[in-house]
Amino acid sequence: MLKIVEIFYSIQGEGTQVGVPSIFIRLHGCNLACNFCDELLHKGEYASLSFDEVLERIKVFPSMHVIITGGEPTIYNLNGFIEYLQAYMYSVAVETNGYNFSNISNANWVTYSPKAWDVIEKYGYDEVKFVVSKDSDVEKILAFKSYKPIFIQPQNEIDRPNKENVNFCVEFVKAHPQFILSVQLHKFLGVE
Asked: Which residues bind S-adenosyl-L-methionine (predicted)?
């Protein structure tokens, strides 16, 4: 059984796969309590659903691209669920803070968004996303090197962009072109 907060269909608004029509499966729970979290639903009510029940809910959408998000998905071992979806030809991406990469090792794509920048993992993911505000200690991420895409994403409000942080991040990536701007396109478009 999976603790499902919501299942919805939209476009991916972040990272390498921006613009891809995707089915989002939001799981309940997180190992952190970030003061800038822009998705608080993972702390509320949820339904316990079997793999088959989840499949029935996602089959109504035309996309074959699933994104598992939270909260923090890797607090659960999701490898069996990922394999289950892949057996039905779904491509499965997971967004994680890096709590336990082994719990999602079967995913087709992993977006790693570390919240503490003192120790940043080097392996287990396909792209890195740093959530940055104008007050962030960016010196910690300037030292990070990777051959994988490294995104700088403005710390936004729950329902809209934060223009100050967006402007800071635009100038930051212009000054440090090893990074790529990711703006949470869905918040600019006003879609879920």
From this structure: 36-38, 71, 113-115
